[in-house]
Amino acid sequence: MADAVDYNAKWDACLDLTLRRFVYSSLAGALGGLLLFRSPVTRWASIAFTAGVGVGSAYTECSQILYGSPGKLSSPMVLDTPAPQTIRLAGWFGWSDTLS
C-alpha cells in the first residue's frame, strides 16, 4: 500500500511540475513575443515554442522522478587503432606530393 501512495505522490508532483512549467514558459513566450515581434503569427509561434520547451523539460524531469535517473553513459573504447599510412600521389596525375 505504501508503494502505491508513493507512486501517486510522484504522479501528483509530475502533473504539478508540468502545469507550472507549461504556464510559466507560455507567459515568458507571450512576453517575449510582444517585445520582439510585430506579426501575430510570430507571436503565437514564440508562445508555442516556449510552451513546448516547458513541457519537454517537465517530461525530462518527470521521467527522472518516476523511473530514476538514467545510468551514466560511457564512451566506446577503441582497442586497436591502425597507424596512419602515407599515400604517394604519383603516376596518373603527375604529382610528386605525399599525403599523410
TrEMBL record:
Instruction: Please report the record's description of how this protein sits within the membrane.
Output: Single-pass membrane protein
Keywords, comma-separated and alphabetical: Membrane, Mitochondrion, Mitochondrion inner membrane, Transmembrane, Transmembrane helix
| Record carries keyword Transmembrane | yes
Location comes to: Mitochondrion inner membrane
Single GO cellular component term: MICOS complex
* Organism domain of life: Eukaryota
Tell me the protein family, please.
Answer: Belongs to the MICOS complex subunit Mic10 family.
Q: What does this protein do?
A: Component of the MICOS complex, a large protein complex of the mitochondrial inner membrane that plays crucial roles in the maintenance of crista junctions, inner membrane architecture, and formation of contact sites to the outer membrane.
Which PANTHER family does this UniProt record tie to the protein?
Answer: MICOS COMPLEX SUBUNIT MIC10
**Protein name, per record:** MICOS complex subunit MIC10
**Species in which this protein is naturally found:** Erythroxylum novogranatense
